[in-house]
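Internal ticket #5521
Category: modeling
Description: The requester needs a full-assembly model to guide mutagenesis choices. All entity lines are attached below as received. Residue total reported by intake: 1604.
Assigned to: D.W.
Attached entities:
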Amino acid sequence: MFTDDPVRAAKPATSMPLSEELLWRMDAYWRAANYLTVGQIYLQDNPLLEVPLERRHIKPRLLGHWGTTTGLNFIYVHLNRLIKAHDLDMIYVIGPGHGGPGLVAQAYLEGSYTEVYPDIERDRHGMRRLFRQFSWPYGVPSHVAPETPGSIHEGGELGYSLAHAYGAAFDNPDLIVACIVGDGEAETGALATSWHSNKFLNPARDGAVLPILHLNGYKIANPTLLARITPDELGELFRGYGYEPLFVEGDDPAQVHRQLAAALDKALARIHGIQQAARHATDGQAPARARWPMIVFRTPKGWTGPKVVDGLPVEGTWRAHQVPLKDFDDPAHVRLLEDWLLSYRPHELFDADGRLRPELAELAPTGRRRMGANPHANGGVLLQPLTLPHFRDHAVRLAAPGGLEVESTRVLGRYLREVMRLNAQAGNFRLFGPDETASNRLQDVFEVTSKAWMATIEPVDEHLSPQGRVMEVLSEHLCQGWLEGYLLTGRHGLFSCYEAFIHIIDSMFNQHAKWLKTTRHIPWRAPIASLNYLLSSHVWRQDHNGFSHQDPGFLDHVANKKADVVRIYLPPDANCLLSVADHCLRSRNYVNVIVAGKQPEWQWLDIDAAARHCSTGAGVWTWASTDEGRDPEVVMACAGDVPTLETLAAVTLLREYAPDLRVRVVNVVDLMVLQPPGEHPHALSDVDFDELFTRDKPVIFAFHGYPGLIHRLAYRRHNHDNFHVRGYREEGTTTTPFDMTVMNNLDRYQLALDAILRVPRLSALASDATDRYWATMERHRLYISEHGEDLPEVAQWRWTMG
Amino acid sequence: MFTDDPVRAAKPATSMPLSEELLWRMDAYWRAANYLTVGQIYLQDNPLLEVPLERRHIKPRLLGHWGTTTGLNFIYVHLNRLIKAHDLDMIYVIGPGHGGPGLVAQAYLEGSYTEVYPDIERDRHGMRRLFRQFSWPYGVPSHVAPETPGSIHEGGELGYSLAHAYGAAFDNPDLIVACIVGDGEAETGALATSWHSNKFLNPARDGAVLPILHLNGYKIANPTLLARITPDELGELFRGYGYEPLFVEGDDPAQVHRQLAAALDKALARIHGIQQAARHATDGQAPARARWPMIVFRTPKGWTGPKVVDGLPVEGTWRAHQVPLKDFDDPAHVRLLEDWLLSYRPHELFDADGRLRPELAELAPTGRRRMGANPHANGGVLLQPLTLPHFRDHAVRLAAPGGLEVESTRVLGRYLREVMRLNAQAGNFRLFGPDETASNRLQDVFEVTSKAWMATIEPVDEHLSPQGRVMEVLSEHLCQGWLEGYLLTGRHGLFSCYEAFIHIIDSMFNQHAKWLKTTRHIPWRAPIASLNYLLSSHVWRQDHNGFSHQDPGFLDHVANKKADVVRIYLPPDANCLLSVADHCLRSRNYVNVIVAGKQPEWQWLDIDAAARHCSTGAGVWTWASTDEGRDPEVVMACAGDVPTLETLAAVTLLREYAPDLRVRVVNVVDLMVLQPPGEHPHALSDVDFDELFTRDKPVIFAFHGYPGLIHRLAYRRHNHDNFHVRGYREEGTTTTPFDMTVMNNLDRYQLALDAILRVPRLSALASDATDRYWATMERHRLYISEHGEDLPEVAQWRWTMG
């Protein structure tokens, strides 16, 4: 199963690749980074300690996290050595993102920081500004952030570093992603399953991930689990996850320098060995899964910081997590801080102007090899547009609205197959899904690719291969994290998911949307491909799986984020879905959410009409309306495939109930058109909105999601008080598809009754229509409870107007 | 570290506790359960196959999941043997909840099903109804569900079984929770970290969890990861997680019966050994962490089902996941189904009336020992109310509104300390939090208890102990899952969390809220304690951690759930927080969300006023108003502690700007009062609402969360068009606390300006007020960018009216 036997490396590595001289310089470089870290947290002036430290040099508010940074800095210096020695293409992902000042310090030392922020010069003036800006209003955030050069990972919300790292490595054969996993972060669910990503990394095609568990022992207020199990258990855990763990451990910097250098040399040799074996296999065999190396780096929290403050131990405890010295009204603390800063011997490190001494500066890689300047960490600069097929080529051909039934997502699957085919050479497009690609009817992609799988493949398996470009694992966290890492390094993708379970990554979506929002204001960050969701197996067609599978609330969640980042599409049929998907795959820097059904459903628009409809986002369906383009008595609005079906069925009922009623049907594809102008770029003008929805007529709005969302988006519109929204009201179980709409009052009978009751002219009909409604409901309930399936008139309903 | 050395049990267990006769009967019982499972999925009639099977006996819609059920049934039969042999108090948690028909079959066989559903009699008529109701409209859901006797876990959304199991075991020393983890589910993040729960289980005080990994090899469409790594890796993984894995593997039932019986005997002996050692330690030592047993149960997916259908292998592949035979227009498939059913030899199992033969029926435990009737799985029947301290005893004493500043959550911490103390004996209350109890200022609880911790404890550690009742782990998933399991088995708890990161468990909240909603309609399910969230470190005071830590959207998410299940409280000060917390801890069957700050903040209400205010949910603060109880010109409304502060500061500004303006201040504690009557039980009547907010005056509403939520809740109210809501609009970074409100236009200056601009009488002031506003903003920006902290007039602001 493995390319070779695991090397058990439970003992610390002991070889010595470092000369004493190099060791001294690396240690000095580390001290420089630590000095700059402490300076950022504490100082607003006197950056080079040119005069004795005073209270006024210290910031009034002390924000930041000290505990993790020296470890991060230590590793960074060693990665620099490795990059330089082997001309590596390497980026870092820092799980403990609150170690922000360390990474800023490193980018500053290597020069990549000043290149993108020229006002932070590499001298005493720049150093003062560097210190002052940190966690300062209008300065830079306290975490590794989009503003930090070289980062694709914020790390404020813990748990996603390793998934991001693997996402970055996929299809980047020459890239090595060094991923620092915090031992606190390692307790999160997302991280705990991310270790298994190694079963999806193909050493022949993909780059490498080098996980480094930063085992400094403590979280905010507690020890970490992985620091308090036996070393044997720790080794078994990582070997069980399929890695070869290499252990580095200590608190004497010189010893740890030697150990880490040896471990990194060993890890790199192993990575290269695995890759060479996979890439130069002469027998034509598919590459086998490798036992990749990872490093356990056990050093004290707050290493090199104050050992004891006010009689309590700090270094090596959770007390070092944030700012270990705070009370500078106490002059003794000012002295402690000064001693701490001087312990790095800054005058050995920086010249009188505050420039890093040349013998240290030359330790850093140069140009794009610097981790702060590696283009993979600013993926937009590498982004190549997808080669897209003509979506019209995949159109459903229909003679008239309601002309045939198809599974919309299956049609999309054929289009995606072509996307996959056309970009196979470029290797920059992947599909992601939690075991649901086929369940969501996208299986035609398997005609041109497979599911990536490096674990054992049995003869009975289908569509599994190390070369596959469909990523399936039963973890929404991994799908999301991998895709984010893939996008942030300049590639494209789509995540298809059961609608209800996309909530599993609500919080990851938040962080990605925040990242995108922030990058809008960072000129050097080039736009990346949008994060595209296809939510299928949606609330209205999870009648078979039941209540736990029914939740359309992700739309509400998404709608809270900044309007210039999010887009929500509810294509009512396959042709609209094609048009929307094509648009989304071309877009940049957005999160696009597409909701579309996978069950056979009636088709409404030919491809030209669909493309027009989707480009305006909402429009009157004149062929379904009976107001002859003017002055309707009621507007039947709909958004979503099932609500559209029920609305059109209601329209046919209304023709029977109230033949002369002037009904206008409005379909909304792009939900953001409802927002007030100024709130969202897609918003309809008030004039256009009123043109569609009238200023005073009742609007019966059948909506895919929770009704509140429509009200929230449209409450400022003139006619809002006449909006009567039907949608999911949190009722469900295992039942029939139509009964789902009945349970939630979104069914055609309800919608038709709503229309009649809201049109004053029809008041004479109200009582009869209500009776008829209840009789129908009674018949429905009796029928399904007796027959276990829907009324024939519902199941066999066809569009008959026009 | 361990109570004894791990027993390496990589080889199948081979001892033989079963006589041939018992083996035959257990196998027959298993066949009976399998027969009933297939019957539920397929049959609407002819349950005993008394006539040859015909198409009309088969349901028209075939829903359900076959693949996992025979394994679940197999294990259940064996657990029954164990329970009976040792008089065990045992419940099960079934991760692969889609195996619902298996569990229903088991409850039916043991009689617990008929006890709660008397119309499903234990005879041919009952059996017919049992079959027919499954996945049938108005019948029972396809998954293990609240309707399933013996279950505390739905299992539709995968990943939470093991956390639920541990939650159930905490403080239940005599309980054993058998937890079946699906190998698909095992890929999820939540499950991957749940294995670490063993570091929190105290064998002296808590019950035991017996995890059984149901390794049937496939998900919906793919193999599972854990089935395709080497057995060595699998063993290392579970030993690395701290377990002693016992392996059971095969497809020959007789062999597997013997293996599983032996493995269970071994596991039980080990559990008892661990517990005895911990409970009867003579040296007074704290119990050590144990290496608990777990079982890897590797059997074919769809075991005993069709081996091949239409030429494709089914048993032992992913094709067995759902319904393996579907096309009954093909008479050959009808025959296949009949053969499949007959392969269980039903006439050996059931008598002519459809009753399970007595020699089989006697294999089941009796009474409350039956897993379908164990009261722990219907926790409400065991629920004892908490002994609560008088919350008034912990009140902040203040002479007048704005009389002092305190950290509200710290006050709550003192109250919770007393809750902890008063219920220590009962052992039925725990606090849960992801490493944030102290960070959220609840640390006074550590005066009476500690944090539960079974891993190594070092001298430097504080408040860690095997006896602790505060559950801290850096996994929101674990906190949530443990608490759910704890509540569902009849205990009480509170989960304190950073507001932004509670989104990590959005989806788990969904499932719990759905569970609670469903149980409202199940008479035999007794009410359980509410799930209480304390969200602190909230959006407005995460200025130091930055944008990633700022998200108030959980409120929107919660508000989507059924009104009879969810409650949202925004206490503006410590006394209100006490009153709300007391109310929540007494409540049943709700999800209560409390948002409260941890930073020093001004206090407004004495305890009597606070209790009155919280009981009405919203009210006029006359002491802050200048309308003398009548006819205000503007209503300044607020919900949340920071919005309340800004509103009151705005009121003092208004007194200066427009001294004769009649301002009414309305504070909302209970957000659900805003909903229209009929939508939520807490809703204010329209009369009361209008009384508070007027029917026609401008309402400047300062809200803690996204403004859209207020519009969504209040859009049907008369005065809604005059509501101008300020709240979080997704702007943030690392900055000062006050700048957070400025970035989002929630600051006092904005609110005061809003009021002036909305009162027509003040139009003459508008231009000057606007100028003044912008000048102030400019001064603010300059000051914080120069000084790094807020304007003195803001930082030192005090309430001066009244």
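Resolution: model delivered.
Comment from assignee: The longest strand of chain B covers residues 175-182.
Ticket closed.
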